[in-house]
Amino acid sequence: MRSIAPALSLAALAVAAPLSAQAQTAAPVLLPEGTLLDLTATGKTSRVPDVAIIRAGVVSQSPTAAAALADNAQRMARVLAALKRAGVADRDVQTANIALQPQYRYAQNEAPVITGYQASNNVQVRFRDIGKSGAILDALVKEGANQIDGPNLTIDQPDAAEDEARTDAVAKARARAELYARAAGMRVDRILSISEGGGNVPGPMPVPMMMSARAGAEADSKIAAGEQDVTVSVTVRFLLK
After folding, report:
1. What is the pLDDT of residues 99-155, one digit of tens each?
2. Residues 107 and 127 occupy one common structural domain
3. Sheet of 35-47: strands edge to edge?
4. For residue 184, what is the DSSP state?
5. CB 24: neighbour CB atoms within 10 A?
6. Residue 162 · residue 43 · CB < 8 Å
7. What is the pTM of this model?
8. Which of 119, 171, 226, 238 would be a feasible disulfide site paired with 68, CB 3.0-4.6 Å?
């Protein structure tokens, strides 16, 4: 018993030593002296849209599916050729939808009867010169396009506009912090953190447009670009003293 007691005491000391060392190395959490103020602000800038996105296509009807597809393919080929002649790059033309559907005649107490077929082919076209897009659409109608949807106006490269909105958002947050500080008899010491809560770069903005399949040489479609807002929201933590 006399030999066991010192051994137990040594073991207790060995365990206590690492625990004591760990307690000494833990860094204390220091809070800044002053008042914390969290503010959320939204910055905004405006840009003129520089891209118009339009869907154009051809709808054909015929008694047979094969005839409807053949007619549709011929007319769509003329539409694509017109886009190429107008200088629209291949990368700015993308097939959006191809469909073939039977057309039915319905009568009371009778089974539906197929009367023909309707074929459709639509492409999405990106116009990088909005001023010319209306004239190009008129040319497409003359070449057989009888379905037009759009235009949707957007900003091709919004990065610079987003940065302007960020700068505006931080400036607004700072001005508001200064106001709160003065009202409280304090001053803004520094910014402790900034976080971005998201922004709003407008996607394609639909602009209703109607075109007739019978449009002739007198057609003169105009598209007005207008302006779009780009916004970014930030949350800023200030230290007031």
Report:
1. 999 999 999 888 999 999 999 999 999 999 888 888 888 889 988 899 998 889 999
2. yes
3. 35-47, 228-240, 188-200
4. T
5. 7
6. no
7. 0.65
8. 119
